[in-house]
Each structure stands twice: as structure tokens, then as C-alpha cells.
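Example S7 (C-alpha cells).
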């Protein structure tokens, strides 16, 4: 299925909507205990139970609208289903808190394996939106590996040493802000190794 273009606002809503709903649900339910089918659940677990079908639905809608899902979106959905499902089934939020750590280690490992083979697999995901020379992709991939490893450590520190409220704030706002800041900090790299898309298309036509 060919990839289709959709409104950036629609895409942002599908990408971030489930996380925002989780944040709101957690803050409304965090102080309570809820009996469901004869079993007591904390507000954290109930919010997690709401998040799982929401992210599955939003991912399905995104796929139907665009005809394509990135490797990160697929991996995120699978890990949410596994670790979120374990948290609900075992009534233990620990598994859901570990999910970001597993995701970041997974991507660091995949990108690192590509680097060992002299390949920048990040280029396969982002090249269309960000044309750049191979040398630039290799540098950016190395930096992303370092970032993902640092975020994995940070997530472990936060959920193991701080309150649920701080961890939810960190997951909802802290991690996205760090990622956006990291990408913005690569401006000089993009400027040095970037390829003008119009010139590239013109060269291909010749």
C-alpha cells in the first residue's frame, strides 16, 4: 500500500493523543482504588488499561490513513501490548514503567548493529524527510545511539527512585522535550551534510 499524506495535525493527534489521555486519566485516578470484576486496581493500572486500546486504535487509524507505519511505531505498539498487558494482568505498574527502557535499548541495539556493519539504518526511516550525505547519517546515528542509551538509563533512574507522578510527567513531557531538543541541536550537522532536495531531483532527471 502506497504511503498517503495526511494533515500534520491529524498525525500529531494520533501520535500523542493516547499519551495525553493516559496523563489525564492517571492524574484523575491516581489517588483511588478501583474494583473491577472483583479485583482491586490502582489508578495507575486503570489508566494503563485505558492507554493500551487507545494506542492500538490510533496506530490502526494511522496505518489506514497513511498506508504505512514506521519501525518505531510498530515496536512501540508491540511493547505497549506486552508490557502494558503484563501490568494490567499482574496488577503491577512496574512492567509499564520499564517499557520506555526496553524501547530505547532496542533501538540503540538495532542502530548500533547497523553501525558495526557500516550502515546508518536511521537513514532508511528519515531520509525522505531529511536528505543528507551518508557521512552525516553515520554521525547522526551514533549520536542517536548515545541518546537512546542515556534515555534508557534516565527512565530507570526516574521510575526506580521517584514517585509515580514524577515518572508520568517525565514520560509525557520530559522525554518528548529531550528528543525535540536533541534534534534541534543537530542543526549544524544538517547544515553541513544536508542535500538540497530540489537539486537532487534535478540531477536524477538528467
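Recovered sequence:
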Amino acid at each position: 500500500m502506497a504511503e498517503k499524506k495526511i494533515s500534520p495535525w491529524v498525525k500529531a493527534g494520533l501520535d500523542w493523543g493516547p499519551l495525553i489521555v493516559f496523563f489525564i486519566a492517571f492524574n484523575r485516578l491516581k489517588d483511588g482504588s478501583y474494583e473491577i470484576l472483583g479485583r482491586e486496581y490502582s489508578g495507575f493500572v486503570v489508566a494503563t488499561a485505558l492507554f493500551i486500546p487507545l494506542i492500538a486504535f490510533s496506530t490502526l487509524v494511522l496505518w489506514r490513513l497513511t498506508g504505512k507505519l514506521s519501525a518505531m511505531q510498530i515496536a512501540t505498539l508491540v511493547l505497549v501490548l506486552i508490557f502494558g498487558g503484563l501490568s494490567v494482568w499482574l496488577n503491577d505498574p512496574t512492567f509499564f514503567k520499564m517499557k520506555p527502557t526496553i524501547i530505547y535499548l532496542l533501538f540503540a541495539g538495532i542502530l548500533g548493529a547497523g553501525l558495526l556493519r557500516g550502515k546508518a539504518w536511521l537513514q532508511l526511516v528519515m531520509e525522505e524527510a531529511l536528505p543528507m550525505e551518508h557521512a552525516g547519517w553515520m554521525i547522526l546515528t551514533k549520536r542517536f545511539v548515545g541518546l537512546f542509551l542515556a534515555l534508557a538509563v534516565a527512565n530507570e533512574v526516574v521510575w526506580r527512585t521517584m514517585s509515580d507522578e514524577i515518572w508520568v510527567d517525565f514520560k509525557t513531557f520530559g522525554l518528548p522535550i529531550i528528543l525535540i531538543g536533541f534534534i534541534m541541536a543537530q542543526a549544524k550537522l544538517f547544515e553541513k551534510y544536508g542535500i538540497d532536495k530540489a537539486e537532487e531531483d534535478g540531477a536524477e532527471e538528467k
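Notes on this example. Residues 56 and 77 are 7 Å apart (CA to CA).
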